[in-house]
Amino acid sequence: MNEIILSDKRKMSNVQNAILYFFIYSFLGWSLEVVYAMYVHRTFVNRGFLFGPICPIYGFGALILIGSLRNVKKNRILKFFIAIIAFSVFEYIASYILEVLFNQRWWDYSNDILNLQGRISILYSLVWGILGILFTEKLHPFIRRKVEEVSLSISKKTQTIIIYTLVVIFVMDEIFSILAHLK
Q1: Which of 42, 61, 15, 48 is nearest to 167 (CA)?
Q2: pTM of the predicted structure, to 2 decimals
Q3: Within 10 Å of residue 166's Cβ, how many Cβ atoms?
Q4: What three-state secondary structure class fits 121?
Q5: How many alpha carbons lie under 13 Å from residue 4 in its C-beta half-sphere?
Q6: What was the pLDDT predicted at 72?
């Protein structure tokens, strides 16, 4: 019985989980982008806006998807369309904001069929829909279990230190990256 009480005390809060998921999926997204760029360009290309190894658009996208599909359990068609809409709207807004703030484009789908101002395209929207299903049915449940296992094995204080350290490093990276892109 004491083990159950101890486990509950060590479980991370929803906010801590969201922050940790953000960083995990931002790193996985950055890794995916780098592998793709290495395949296409045959050399290392830091595909992110930041200096560090994360692409926040993937972290935010994952959190949006987790929230959007929280109550959709079995209906894959509904998941597919919600993922298409959520990711496409988010990708469009992120592209617009980055371009307005820094006068740069980090992606351009202008050459793709059925694109909207080169910010989103039907092809990538369909890919986001498929990835949304895979994400919610395979990847996120696996990551959620691993995060829970690790969080139960470390103290609340250590969890808090890890979360704050990640946030501080991220904020510093944001500041330095923004300053570099404004030049």
Answers
A1: 15
A2: 0.84
A3: 15
A4: strand
A5: 1
A6: 86
